[in-house]
Design brief:
The structure holds 3 protein chains of 3 kinds. Chain A has helices spanning 8-18, 34-44, 58-70, 81-86, 88-96, 121-124, 139-154, 183-186, 214-246, 272-285, 303-310, 330-340, 362-378; strands at residues 2-6, 23-25, 51-53, 75-79, 102-107, 132-135, 162-167, 176-180, 207-208, 254-257, 264-268, 290-295, 297-299, 315-320, 347-352, 385-387. Chain A is an alpha/beta fold. In chain A, strands 3-2-4-5-7-6-13 form a 7-stranded mixed beta sheet, with helices on both faces. In chain A, strand 14, helix 12 (330-340) and strand 15 (347-352) form a beta-alpha-beta unit. The radius of gyration of chain A is 21 Å and the shape is globular. The termini of chain A are far apart. The relative contact order of chain A is 0.11. The model of chain A has no long low-confidence stretch (mean pLDDT 98). Chain B has a single domain, classed as Thiamin diphosphate (ThDP)-binding fold, Pyr/PP domains (Rossmann fold), CATH 3.40.50. In chain B, 36% of the residues lie in helices and 15% in strands. Chain B has helices at residues 25-37, 49-52, 74-87, 102-106, 109-117, 163-168, 183-195, 209-212, 219-228, 246-249, 260-264, 280-301; strands at residues 41-45, 59-60, 66-68, 94-100, 122-128, 174-179, 199-205, 235-238, 241-244. Chain B has an 8-stranded mixed beta sheet, with helices on both faces. In chain B, helix 1 crosses helix 7 (183-195) and helix 3 runs parallel beside helix 5 (109-117). The radius of gyration of chain B is 18 Å and the shape is globular. Chain C is mostly beta strands. Chain C has a domain at 53-111: Alpha-Beta Plaits. In chain C, 8% of the residues lie in helices and 24% in strands. Chain C has helices at 67-71, 97-101, and strands at 2-5, 18-22, 36-39, 53-57, 77-79, 85-87, 107-111. In chain C, the strands form 3 sheets. In chain C, strands 1-2 form a two-stranded antiparallel sheet. Chain C has a two-stranded antiparallel ribbon with strand order 4-7. In chain C, a hairpin with a 5-residue loop joins strand 5 and strand 6 (85-87). The chains are: A alpha/beta, B alpha/beta, C mainly beta. Strand 9 of chain A pairs parallel with strand 3 (66-68) of chain B, so a sheet runs across the interface. The complex binds thiamine diphosphate and iron/sulfur cluster (SF4) (2 copies). Thiamine diphosphate binds at residues 47-49, 71-72, 100-103, 129, 131-135, 140 of chain B.
Chain lengths: 391, 302, 121
């Protein structure tokens, strides 16, 4: 392990080397572009030893990964925003074919109008494709979560593709420290991919994906659901092993900061979670019992962790950097739904903001938490959904 | 010298009891293509009749590895398969796309173009039944002038696009046209393609009894008439060396061609050209377009 | 469920011919994680039941030229070493192509049920 200074995108390209990826297929789009650029460079220098397909679209990028993974190769791609949207058909295909492809999505707002800055609308709109989803908050976490993602996706109990999301520019183009692992080190953790069920092989011909009638289709979908749900426990195992081997741990499905004794919690995804720590510290100094919970794993949704987190809390502010038009913040909705069957009943308020790359800084987070506290203390819940900093 | 029927291997890769329509010419082409490739192949199939003829999970009516893929994604999927084989040092296996005309002329054209521009070592086969058969015979970019489809009820107003020239402009390592009515010639072309590295394209004329509305037993006759009327031109191009096929050579001279009517009138999809009365003008238009196709092909490729 | 759909064009011009395929639910305990299929003869059942006419080879006239074998879309014609063709009536779909291409015109299409099965050799 050696410490290096790099942007998240450069580090992602190194994760591809460390994880001994065999096939990369990718297409440029800001802010993901420097991932394929770096992989191209590493490939031309002979450092990345796999194949790199310079495809002509993101749809083709994911289908090239599907072709490669179906032929037994470890496959990776990176994209953002419109690129992820163009992949939609392929995302569904990869998960239903149970192909453990890993995708680094550099979160970016969707068009129109053109805006290259962060929102989570791109990946949130892919919530129901079957992909496991992580959101990270640092370069180091991005790099290591990509490596972990291969192990998770390839686990026979899971066998679902995995998307690791990082905030555009905030991480993708910001240089920071991370700990690089040589492929030889990662070998201790990640074995070569060997498809457990089917593979394209002339010695043992099978056809994948021909017609399935209503008698069986639903059972295949159930199996996908099971695979995704299993990902939660399998990830806990993987994280424990990773911690033991490399001393790296990023907090499980939900990383909590001063949550235990808190009355008020703010949940968030991505880099806001890092920012929130300072806000929490400042509010704590002013006597508020607040904490921050950064949701790292969004699919499968860590329902039990959410329940544990919410137990005994007075109120939760769920911050979404995306919107489900007509029904508010997607993560807020999931948190509410997770608690409905229990008697855990904190006030839950949904805050939406930071769209199109609008800054969310420490004062913003303080403002949100104070708004939450005000409503809880006054006994007036106020609006279910608040657009923060709506001008 | 063309292969003798006796020399074509007996081993079958198309298995009996599959889900193809009776008389489907696609199956004839598949049979002989795979006899030529002898099983060392991974076949990529986008949405089209060839995905349906395989039959239902958990069985498949073909004894080769088949990767079904999305309608527009064959070129990309095959690129990924090839890359994986290269990464694993199993580069000799032929990666073949088997796509319909819709999946090639229309929705899949971009992925095909990208894969060829990248000089991917693969064989892309377009089996051309000139229509979206799988979804019930809607027009495609390969549907000929005046053919009736369920989106051109009174006959298509535009001729088909000259896909072969689009592909030729990618300068493939090997390119050929073939026709299911000439299986020996088809077998030879797949044999040759197997030996050549780089992007390869074979475009096969496939009469479809369902969509063209002709008696099922007439598939071979119609396929041959397509050549004998000059409608379908058989040729081959290795690198930039173009050769007119022996079956088409004598029909370069328009006076040697059978009248196009012989081809058209067997097919229900052209019935409006003959009913209530014969439409000489439109038939002439089709004939002129055939000549135009000959001219532009030879001008461009020779 | 046992389906017997001939020429169903509800979704598919490419006749999703499902013929006596037993599609009894497997139950997910016996199912793989995703739908990959094994090569099988009779993947769509005994397709011979689709026939209205049976091809019958007149072996006295047959020159063993293999033309019917070459053109049969179904791969249901097998050849003896000397080229003598045999039709597998379990799967022959009765398209009549063999009869059309036979250069000696020695394959007759006879209405199903009228074929003399003794004749076959
Ligand atoms: C993205 C997408 N759009 C539409 C379809 C529906 N579709 C499936 S097959 C097909 C037509 C196929 O036509 P062609 O490629 O000519 O092959 P054929 O069926 O004639 O063999 C269509 C429109 C699809 N599967 N995917
Ligand atoms: S619709 Fe045409 S191409 Fe499709 S299976 Fe039937 S005969 Fe073959
Ligand atoms: S009738 Fe058709 S399916 Fe049957 S043997 Fe003849 S060509 Fe083959």
């Amino acid at each position: 392990m050696k410490t290096e200074l790099m942007s998240a995108n450069y580090a992602a390209a190194r994760a591809v080397v460390s994880a001994r990826v065999e096939v990369v297929a990718a297409y440029p789009i800001t802010p993901a572009t420097t991932v394929p650029e770096q992989i191209a460079l590493l490939s031309e220098k002979g450092i990345y030893k796999g194949e790199f397909i310079r495809v002509e679209s993101e749809h083709s990028a994911m289908f090239a990964c599907i072709g490669a993974s179906s032929t037994g190769a470890r496959a990776f791609t990176a994209t953002s925003s419109n690129g992820l949207l163009l992949m939609d058909e392929a995302l569904h295909w990869a998960s239903a074919a149970r192909l453990p492809i890993v995708l680094a999505n550099i979160n970016r707002s969707v068009s129109p109008s053109w805006n290259i800055h962060v929102s989570h609308d791109d990946s949130m709109s892919k919530r129901d494709t079957g992909w496991i989803q992580f959101y990270v908050s640092s370069v180091d976490e991005f790099y290591h979560t990509i490596i972990q993602a291969f192990k998770l996706a390839e686990d026979e109990r899971v066998l679902m593709p995995t998307m690791v999301n990082a905030d555009g520019f905030v991480l993708s183009h910001t240089v920071s420290r991370y700990d690089y692992l040589e492929p030889e080190e990662v070998d201790k953790f990640l074995q070569p991919y060997s498809p457990p069920h089917w593979v394209m092989d002339p010695e043992n011909p099978v056809a994948h994906g021909n017609i399935v009638f209503p008698e069986h289709y639903q059972e295949f979908r159930y199996s996908m659901h099971e695979g995704t749900k299993n990902a939660l426990d399998v990830y806990l195992e993987i994280e424990a092993e990773y911690k033991k081997l490399f001393g790296k741990y990023f907090g499980g499905p939900i990383e909590c900061y001063k949550c235990d004794d808190a009355d008020y919690i703010m949940t968030s995804q991505g880099t806001i979670g890092a920012e929130a720590r300072d806000a929490i510290d400042q509010l704590r100094k002013d006597g508020y019992k607040v904490g921050s919970a950064r949701i790292r794993m969004y699919r499968p949704f860590p329902i039990d962790h959410i329940r544990d987190l919410a137990k005994g809390k007075k109120a939760i502010a769920s911050f979404d950097r995306s919107v489900s038009y007509g029904f508010g913040g997607p993560v807020a909705n999931d948190i509410r739904a997770s608690l409905y069957a229990t008697d855990i009943r904190p006030l839950i308020k949904s805050y939406i903001g930071g769209l199109g790359g609008r800054d969310i800084t420490v004062p913003d987070i303080k403002e949100i938490l104070l708004d939450l506290i005000k409503h809880e203390e006054s006994g007036e819940a106020g609006p279910e959904e608040t657009w923060h900093d709506l001008r | 010298m063309m292969v003798a029927t006796k020399e074509i291997p007996l081993k079958e890769y198309v298995l009996k009891g599959n889900a193809a329509c009776a008389g489907c010419q696609d199956m004839v082409a598949l049979r002989h293509a795979h006899k030529a490739l002898e099983g060392d192949v991974i076949q990529v199939v986008p949405a089209c009749c060839t995905s349906v003829v395989q039959s239902l999970w958990p069985k498949v009516g073909m004894n080769i590895p088949i990767l079904n893929t999305a309608f527009m994604a064959s070129g990309a999927t095959a690129s990924g398969v090839k890359a994986a084989l290269r990464a694993k040092g199993k580069d000799d296996t032929t990666v073949m796309v088997w796509a319909g005309d819709g999946g090639t002329f229309d929705i899949g054209l971009q992925a095909l173009s990208g894969a060829f521009e990248r000089r991917t070592d693969m064989l892309y086969v377009c089996y051309n039944n000139q229509v979206y058969s799988n979804t019930g015979t809607q027009r495609s970019g390969a549907t000929p002038l005046y053919a009736q489809t369920t989106t051109t009820w009174f006959g298509k107003r535009e001729p088909e696009k000259l896909l072969d020239l689009i592909v030729a402009m990618h300068e493939p390592a090997y390119q050929a046209t073939a026709n299911a009515a000439y299986p020996r010639d088809l077998f030879d072309k797949f044999k040759r393609a197997k030996e050549i590295k780089g992007p390869k394209f074979i475009h096969i004329f496939i009469p479809c009894p369902q969509a063209w509305n002709y008696p099922v037993e007439k598939g071979v006759e119609i396929g041959k008439l397509a050549v004998e009327t000059g409608y379908w031109i058989m040729w081959e191009r290795i690198g930039d060396k173009f050769e007119l096929g022996r079956h088409s050579k004598r029909f370069q001279d328009p006076s040697k061609r059978k009248p196009i009517e012989d081809f058209l009138k067997l097919q229900g999809r052209f019935s409006r050209l003959f009913k209530p009365e014969k439409d000489e003008e439109k038939i002439k238009e089709i004939e002129d377009y055939i000549q135009h196709r000959w001219d532009i092909l030879l001008k461009t490729l020779t | 469920m046992s389906l017997r759909v001939r020429s169903c064009r509800a979704h598919s011009g490419c006749v999703l011919v499902v013929n006596e395929v037993n599609t009894e639910p497997e139950g997910r305990a016996n199912m793989p994680k995703t739908s990959y299929s094994k090569p099988s003869v009779g993947a769509t059942g005994k397709t011979g039941s689709w026939r209205t006419f049976d091809p019958v080879i007149n072996y006295k006239e047959c020159s063993k030229c293999r033309t019917c074998w070459l053109y049969c879309p179904e791969a249901v014609i097998t050849l003896e070493d000397d080229g003598t063709p045999h039709i597998d009536y379990d799967y022959c779909k009765g398209c009549g192509i063999c009869a059309q291409v036979c250069p000696r015109k020695c394959i007759d299409m006879v209405r199903k049920g009228t074929r003399d099965e003794e004749d076959e050799e």
